[in-house]
């Protein structure tokens, strides 16, 4: 924070420093705790040129491979959100006309927020599938952009086309099965001792605070226990209850990102392929939403073209191609 911002509101600057030092009442960001909140009003606590601090913020700051939210503060576009000293710093497209102490209306781009929620949850679904198919598996990170999601894995299994197809099918089935997704925090010692928890303190530091870990759980197929169900499109939520909480979860991962409340909200998703880096880490790529639809259309067009050229039904295309090659 610049000296001019401190001079404009020294009390607010002091409050920011105190807030960075005190223990937080929750792990991670408010956006991750309440991902369906996309409009809120709050007070401006400090300004340094185009950089703005807010009393409270539901903007997701770039962390752990997930990009920052898009949106606006007081009508000015937000270009980036980063964490400094434990506080979200909002970078604006231009210097704002509002001042320190003003209350401002903030809006988050729902389309992009929802895409990131879907994409991040899809990565957890894929990891749950990978744990059932790959040997000696460790999670090595995630990267989300607007066209694809890459999940980095360490495994002794050679990932061939058959495994990619199996991963793709299992991911699609979990989306279809409408499995409940929830998040909560538990003592770090408990997370370390639970065999089903994917937890790396080096990678998941944004999910760890004050000796507790934030876990995101994708429930078992028939587990419809108590939770919240989102209202589509407007971020509203209602509480539902009942069901059986004893089913084995599909995936439990330490994570500080934003997620949907049910796998059905992920929508279209498809596995694109994989690549292995020099350090042995294998990245599996997914497409979610429009990019997934485009990829499926391309693949279907190629299959139909092959069927027409070979004059054989789609199901017989692989055998006919093999005969042609021989």
TrEMBL record:
<feature type="domain" description="Alanyl-transfer RNA synthetases family profile">
    <location>
        <begin position="1"/>
        <end position="294"/>
    </location>
</feature>
<dbReference type="GO" id="GO:0005524">
    <property type="term" value="F:ATP binding"/>
</dbReference>
<dbReference type="InterPro" id="IPR050058">
    <property type="entry name" value="Ala-tRNA_ligase"/>
</dbReference>
<dbReference type="GO" id="GO:0002161">
    <property type="term" value="F:aminoacyl-tRNA deacylase activity"/>
</dbReference>
<dbReference type="GO" id="GO:0006419">
    <property type="term" value="P:alanyl-tRNA aminoacylation"/>
</dbReference>
<keyword id="KW-0436">Ligase</keyword>
<dbReference type="InterPro" id="IPR012947">
    <property type="entry name" value="tRNA_SAD"/>
</dbReference>
<dbReference type="GO" id="GO:0003676">
    <property type="term" value="F:nucleic acid binding"/>
</dbReference>
<dbReference type="InterPro" id="IPR009000">
    <property type="entry name" value="Transl_B-barrel_sf"/>
</dbReference>
<dbReference type="Pfam" id="PF07973">
    <property type="entry name" value="tRNA_SAD"/>
</dbReference>
<keyword id="KW-0030">Aminoacyl-tRNA synthetase</keyword>
<dbReference type="InterPro" id="IPR018165">
    <property type="entry name" value="Ala-tRNA-synth_IIc_core"/>
</dbReference>
<feature type="region of interest" description="Disordered">
    <location>
        <begin position="220"/>
        <end position="247"/>
    </location>
</feature>
<dbReference type="InterPro" id="IPR018163">
    <property type="entry name" value="Thr/Ala-tRNA-synth_IIc_edit"/>
</dbReference>
<dbReference type="GO" id="GO:0004813">
    <property type="term" value="F:alanine-tRNA ligase activity"/>
</dbReference>
<protein>
    <submittedName>
        <fullName>Alanyl-tRNA synthetase family protein</fullName>
    </submittedName>
</protein>
């Amino acid at each position: 924070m610049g000296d001019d911002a401190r001079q404009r509101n020294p009390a607010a600057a002091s409050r920011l420093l105190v807030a960075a030092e005190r223990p937080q009442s929750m792990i991670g960001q408010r956006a991750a705790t309440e991902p369906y909140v996309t409009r809120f009003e709050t007070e401006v606590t400090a300004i340094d040129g185009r950089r703005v601090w807010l009393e409270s913020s539901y903007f997701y700051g770039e962390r752990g491979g997930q990009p920052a939210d898009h949106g606006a503060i007081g009508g000015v576009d937000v270009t980036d959100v980063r964490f400094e000293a434990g506080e979200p710093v909002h970078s604006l497209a231009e210097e704002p006309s509002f001042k320190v102490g003003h209350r401002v209306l903030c809006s988050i781009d729902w389309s992009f927020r929802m895409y990131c929620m879907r994409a991040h949850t899809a990565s957890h679904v894929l990891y749950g599938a990978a744990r059932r198919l790959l040997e000696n598996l460790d999670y090595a990170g995630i990267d989300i952009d607007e066209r694809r999601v890459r999940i980095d894995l360490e495994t002794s299994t050679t990932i061939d086309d058959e495994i990619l197809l199996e991963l793709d099918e299992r991911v699609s089935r979990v989306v279809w099965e409408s499995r409940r997704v929830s998040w909560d925090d538990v003592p770090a010692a408990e997370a370390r001792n639970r065999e089903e928890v994917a937890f790396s303190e080096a990678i998941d530091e944004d999910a760890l605070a004050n000796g507790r870990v934030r876990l995101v759980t994708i429930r078992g197929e028939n587990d419809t226990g108590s939770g919240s169900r989102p209202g589509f499109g407007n971020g509203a939520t209602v509480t539902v209850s009942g069901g059986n909480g004893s089913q084995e979860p599909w995936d439990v991962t330490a994570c500080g990102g934003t997620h949907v409340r049910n796998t059905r909200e992920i929508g279209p998703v498809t596995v694109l392929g994989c690549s292995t880096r020099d350090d042995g880490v294998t990245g599996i790529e997914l497409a979610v939403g429009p990019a997934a639809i485009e990829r499926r259309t391309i693949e279907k067009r190629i299959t139909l073209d092959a069927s027409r050229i070979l004059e054989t039904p789609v199901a017989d295309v692989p055998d006919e191609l093999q005969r042609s090659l021989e």
